[in-house]
Amino acid sequence: MSLFTGSAVAIITPFNNDGSINYDAFKKMVDDQIAAGTAAIVVAGTTGEASTIDDAEQIKLIKFCVDTVNKRVPVIAGAGSNDTAHAIELAKLAEEAGADGLLIVTPYYNKTTQKGLVKHYTAIAESVNIPIIVYSVAGRTGLNITPATVKELSKVKNIVAIKEASGDLSQIAKIAEMCGDDIDIYSGNDDQTLPILSIGGKGVISVLANVMPKEVSQMCDKFFKGDIEGSRKIFLDTLKLANTLFIETNPIPVKTACNLMGMNAGPLKAPLYDMEPANLEALKAELKKHNLI
Hints:
Layout: E1 6-10, H1 23-35, E2 40-43, H2 55-69, E3 75-78, H3 84-96, E4 101-105, H4 114-127, E5 132-136, H5 138-141, H6 147-153, E6 159-164, H7 169-179, E7 184-187, H8 193-198, E8 203-206, H9 213-224, H10 228-244, H11 252-260, H12 277-289
Parallel strand pairs: 1-2, 1-8, 2-3, 3-4, 4-5, 5-6, 6-7, 7-8
Helix pairs in contact: 1-2, 3-4, 6-7, 9-10, 11-12
């Protein structure tokens, strides 16, 4: 059984001006997402600026999300690290906090071999009882997960899915061919969601859903109900905005968009910085086109 099917939001983390988490704003964001049809909440991921939150605050945020969601949808917690022992510690703490699943990014900076990836993920999986989504995003980590490695990882009992953000549709198709029903595939790039659904993907872990949750949810729902034309229309109508949200490093544009929409997202954490003026104007134009501001 899939951890979720459809649109999961890679939710931002709203901060106060002093850098602390704005839990009131976060609660409203979570409630609004669920009301809009979002199928799962992915908390403390890349889009949530987890790399700038210390471990205690990360686990507190995960626990708060779990309590706020209150079993309405699955909560998937980011718990990755480039240190296997640290990732195991975070995974255990996230499980204790009540997360329904974990999102584990490949080790970054020091990286490893494909054999090392299998050992890394297997060690984490064996330390917890909840399902794990492995996260392939070589553009950030410098480390790809090959289809053969995904096939090997699919043999681990609680490694159930991959968030594929390699951008390589040929690779993603190869994973689908090699793994079949042994592992679920989720799109990690909003501009590839529909193509990935077409080869058997179960949904998307979406940045766009922060600003258009209903539309991303409906795009997936229409596809699974057989309304391919309706799904394609939403996908193409929102494609330029989805790409504009990556005009600078994620989550700079999406957090800026949330602030422009009045969500009280607060500041970015250093080293992330304000958008360049020309890019900001491009973002505003797309948001206005969709009547979001």
